[in-house]
Amino acid sequence: MTSIFIFLGTLVGLMALGMPVAFALMLTGVALMVQLNFFDAQLVAQNMIAGADIYPLMAVPCFILAGELMNAGGISRRVIALAAALVGHIRGGLGFVAIGATLLLGCFSGSAIADTAAVATILIPMMRDNGYPVPRSAGLIAAGGVIAPIVPPSMPFIIFGVATNTSITGLFVAGIVPALLRAGGLVAVWSLLSRKMETAVQPRRSWGERGRALVDSLWALVLPVLIVGGLRGGVFTPTEASAVAAVYALVVSLFVYREVSLKQLPELLVKAARTTATVMFLCAAAFVSSYMVTLADLPAQVTDALAPVMGHPKLLMAAVMLLLLAIGSVMDLTPTILVLGPVLMPLVMKAGIDPTYFGVMFILVGTLGLIHPPVCTVLNVVCGIARISLESATRGVWPFLLVEAVLVFLFVAYPEFITVPMTWFH
Amino acid sequence: MNRNKLVRLAERSVEALMALDLALIVLLVFSNVVARYGFGSGFAGAEEVSRLLFVWLVFLGAILALRRRAHLGVELLQARLPRAWRRGCAVLTHVLMLYALWLFLAGSWTQTQIGLTTYSTVLRYPNAFMAASGLVCAASMLLIVGANLLRIVLDRPDAMVPGDPDPLLQPAVGVAE
Amino acid sequence: ADFKPHIVRFGYGLAEDSNQGRAAKFLAEDLAKRTDGKFRMKGFASAALGSDLQMQNALIGGAQEMTVVSTATLVGIVDDFGVFDLPFLFANEKEADAVLDGPVGQKLMAKLEAKGLVGLAYWENGFRNLTNSKHAIAKMDDLKGVKLRVMQNPMYIDMFNSMGANAVPLSFSELFTALESKTVDGQENPVNTIESSKFYEVQKYLSITRHVYSPWIVLASKKWWDGLGADEKKAVMASAVASRDFERKDSRAEGARALEDLKKKGMQVTVLNEAELDKMRQTARPATTKFAASGHAELVKELDAEVAKLRK
Ligand code: NA
Ligand code: NA
Which residues form the Tripartite ATP-independent periplasmic transporters DctQ component domain (chain B) (predicted)? Predict the structure, then answer.
């Protein structure tokens, strides 16, 4: 038990003091080294480097670059235009456009932040001009943005797969149905809420206009088919799929849409590289702590502590989900995955819970942390774009947050929602 | 040339290196797919090279991120503390960070020395090429954290303190979530 | 005898219930027995102390005491160890044992000392065999057009390309998924690995080719070793040798059991006949010539002489 206290005490204490998570993780590893009488500076350096030297994680910069290219190259804009052409005319239509657009864009990008930013930039001004309440609209887009990490490709799935040794392809495939259900939940709540809104109705587009919007965004729509098909069909591995996505996005933006010039490319590369470095440095530091966590046999200690619920998988899952929800309110998703993934995975496996199902649930509940305050990067992004305060965005987002949380606990009670569709793809 | 200009130039050069680095990674991974289908085989060193490039990308980028305060942290509690307390916490965390970085540096130094006579399996480059990335990262970060600690202690206005409202603070946009 | 208390951290890559894990347990118990319980060896399974390369460097730097790694890892510090990647070097276990435990194997181990490592004993990973999901491979021609995953090692790529396969270098971490989704058709590993990595779930055909013999090597940190007394060194060495005998016997029994199990799991096993194997040997021969020409002529000659002596 001592190791658990040292681990939690050091990590939480240092983070409360305002230390960046990466450094807190390094020092947590050092504290455990001292406790286990295994102190050596080489172990810090070796694990830092080993934590950055992980081949499958090369998918991170590639998918980020692909996302940057799609936003800069006008691919995202065309997808949103398509959604607007299809459902823009319904009552409260721009809300449905937002849900559809976040879902579609989620199929190309693995990042909730990039997606939310792209949709919010285009749709929030439109929604404001058409009389939609801005906080509610911003809340909807944020809640839609967190669909992106559930549908493939997904950065959190890649990091989770590497951290816990779970099949990334398996996670990608298993995420599709819960993502659709999440979008469905948002549609249901928005239809209720939008009844009371006094909004201008968009003119219905002709089938010709819709067809043109479809053709215009066809290049974008091919990509998810390419990725999922390529993965299932064995054309490439998840790591290679990311590079294919980046090259594809580059070719489309440079030569088809011609909205990106070669001159802009270095800037986009730097942006993607910076983001990658921030995420991966965290991963490197987490390697130091997780190395010592393994040596201290921490997962076994947690299992012992949770012995009473080990025989009740659903109870255990509910407890873990509540824990993750609480942690998600103050911690970002990547460090949560890196710190808790390896600790919890042996535990849930021992309880007989399917690792892929657990991975999907982990990310489902983890992404809620991105939109519930106080620490909530995705909600912050829409606040910045909509120029509203975090308080009003919180008031706007809560009904959507609630339905997404209810869905998580529905999947705890009925894992079949996730486990049954998983088998369809085999 | 004054100091600020020099720092900016260094940053620009690191950024250029990172852009080139990432472009090469994408190309290498992509060419693996092409090689498999086009030529039915692959280049044995592709993975080794891309991994080496990736590690450098991470550690170079992490230095820049530290300068821009882009590493994720929880500053919630700090923002609510009185100014003097906030500075006290910052001094403490900076000293501890210096210690962590010192370990990272010392360990990387040993690993780099070992790496001078050990070689990678496929391309036979000295493993020091890999370990030196840690050396560069730790040394640069020591300088950055040390300089900021000095600024905090001297109560300079350009000191970066967790929890301070900071107009220069880059929002954590782009984090891969 | 004079024994001081020591804690020995012994890291290895496979799981605790593998042949590696069982031998590690044996080694720990045997060492405790020989040193009146003064040497307490703690085994760390499943690469808990890092990859083979990471452990090798930790030993050199003195951050860890002992490990067992693939000889392929050592190629980066003593490139002579590349000799064990050569195709069809040994015909059977008896030849392998004799050469590894004899002067050639010992001479190679001795070269590690200058690099900060002490080689103690060779364990057995095993003869490597082929699996694939396309069709049974009974002769060399059947390899034509098979996309075969190999280690990122130019020698393996050349070897299998020359036999007509499409050798695809891929990291082990992506192998299962790649086999499952048919990104590659096949792979090659000892039967123990084929069973423990569950490749039988995604591979139908197993061909007994025994094309490469892969040894493991038990290592100690030279920094740590130099601090031991004469009696202590003797005890560690004796335990390493005892563990070697245990491990080889256990691995071979396990290999036979794994093969039966793979058949039961539905794998179709093909044993290549001597004529076909000979054809493969001839085709793969340039690999050995090339290795010898790159500064290892002496070693290859010694080894060939040793094997010839045994075959007489
Ligand atoms: Na996605
Ligand atoms: Na949160």
Answer: 25-153
The 10s digit of each residue's pLDDT in A242-294 is: 899 999 999 999 999 999 999 999 999 999 999 889 888 988 998 899 888 88
CA distance C167 to chain A (A): 16
Q: Is A18 on the interface with B (CB under 8 A)?
A: yes
DSSP code at position C13: S
Q: What is the pLDDT of residue A41?
A: 95
Tell me the torsion sign for CA atoms B16, B22, B23, B25: positive
Residues of B in contact with C147 (CB under 8 A): 36, 40
Three-class secondary structure assignment of chain B? CCHHHHHHHHHHHHHHHHHHHHHHHHHHHHHHHHHHHHCCCCCCCHHHHHHHHHHHHHHHHHHHHHHCCCCCECCHHHHCCCHHHHHHHHHHHHHHHHHHHHHHHHHHHHHHHHHCCCECCCCCCECHHHHHHHHHHHHHHHHHHHHHHHHHHCCCCCCCCCCCCCCCCCCCCCCCC
pLDDT tens per residue across span A176-217: 999 999 999 999 999 999 988 888 888 888 999 999 999 999
d(CA A49, CA A192): 51
Tokens at C201, concatenated: 């779930």
Whether residue B31 lies within 8 A of chain C, CB to CB, comes out as no
The gap from C-alpha C195 to its chain's centroid, in whole angstroms, comes to 16
Residue A407 has pLDDT above 80, yes or no: yes
Residue C138: DSSP 8-state: -
Is the ipTM here above 0.95?
Answer: no
Does residue C177 belong to the interface with chain A, where contact is any CB pair within 8 Å? yes
Other beta carbons within 10 Å of C145: 11
Check residue A109 and give its pLDDT: 78
Rounded CA-CA distance A45/B107 in Å is 5
**How far, in Å, from the CA of C197 to the mean position of ligand 2?**
39
Copy the structure tokens of residue C147: 């996309």
Q: Which residue of B has its CA nearest to A149?
A: B177
Rounded to two decimals, what is the model's pTM? 0.89
C40 and chain A: CB distance < 8 Å anywhere?
A: no
